[in-house]
Design goal:
51 residues, mainly alpha, 2 helices, 90% helix, 0% strand
Amino acid sequence: MLTLIMTLMILSKKIKPLTELTDALYNLRQNGETRNALAQIKADQEWYEKK
């Protein structure tokens, strides 16, 4: 039983970045900001490419 708990804790730690990203995308979507965020990401990428 202890091994299962430890395995679940390790899994939870490994997928934390994915769940944080998913939560952020959900919040953007709920607030109607998804397109604005994607446009800003694109603009930032273009700016970095010009540097």
